[in-house]
Amino acid sequence: MDILADQLALARARGAVFSVLRRVEPWGLAFSGQRPLTVSVLIEGDGWLEQPGAEPIRLLPLDMALVTSGPPYALVSAPGAAAEAIADARLRGSDAGPGTAATILCGAYVLEGSVATSLLATLPRALVVRAADADPAHAAAIELLASQISRDAPGQQTLLDRLLDLNLVFALRSAWAQAGGAAPGWYRALADPGLRRVLEQVHTDPAADWTVPVMARLAGLSRAAFAARFHQVTGQSPGSYVTSVRMQRAEDALTRSDATLAKIAANVGYRNEYAFATAFRRRHGLSPGKWRTAARAA
Are both 151 and 47 inside the same structural domain? Predict the structure, then answer.
């Protein structure tokens, strides 16, 4: 079980390009900051990322900037340049005239649910992955994305979407490598072979009877040593982590299926729907049925 892939699947993480614009200096693109996660790549030329209360960040060709939701921000040719709302810029299209120009790809990621919230909470407001410092495979993926922007071929939008998905995985790896102790606990645990075996099996079959002794044997540690090591690395007790994984699967099933509570309970490891409802209410403050109604309405 690839745990990062599992988390992204539960977050329904998927990318979409929503503009590729050529701009002649001076230029600026203003963003509302309301989307959960946006991505910008300067395919050609350079520019700056401006955020309220922060120093502008220089962006060089093929640098990737990921920005989480928050106050409005802008991409500009130089600090202080006037910025046009991205919606208006899309309607106007690209600049065709002469002059020093940049080509800017602007995309967004759709992420949903509590898994998405926890993933986004690990990221800084603005993460810049430098082309010069990127993993060679990531640099190649960005260059491939750039090379495909102007093509008009069957399946092109799907291709661009998948390339954005690929770049998100690389960007998350880069962010968490830099974050050290601020990276998600499960991601840090993947560096420990024993803990990794446990996490992979829990994510593969969360309904199994995951007692501490069972997990300790799988990790190749004594019960006490395993419990201490697990908490030290992940910041959670083993039991709390198992409950979190089960609740994530339950949320996904409640939102995206019509399965009965009894079936969901069995699928995520509870002996009956009443035990499941008690655990779910303890976590969310709502019964599974009411949570399902609210989530679907939202």
Answer: yes
pLDDT score, position 104: 93
Q: Cα-flanking dihedrals φ and ψ of residue 83, to 5°?
A: -120, 135
Q: Which amino acid is at 79?
A: P
The mean per-residue pLDDT over the stretch 178-198 comes to 90
Give me the domain span that covers residue 283.
Answer: 187-297
Q: Identify the CATH number of the domain in which residue 116 sits.
A: 2.60.120.10
- 92 lies in the same domain as 24: yes
pTM over 0.85: no
- Tell me the pLDDT tens digit for each residue of 78-113: 999 999 999 999 999 999 889 899 999 998 888 888
Of 152, 180, 208, which residue is a domain's last?
A: 180
Q: In percent, how much of the chain has pLDDT > 90?
A: 63
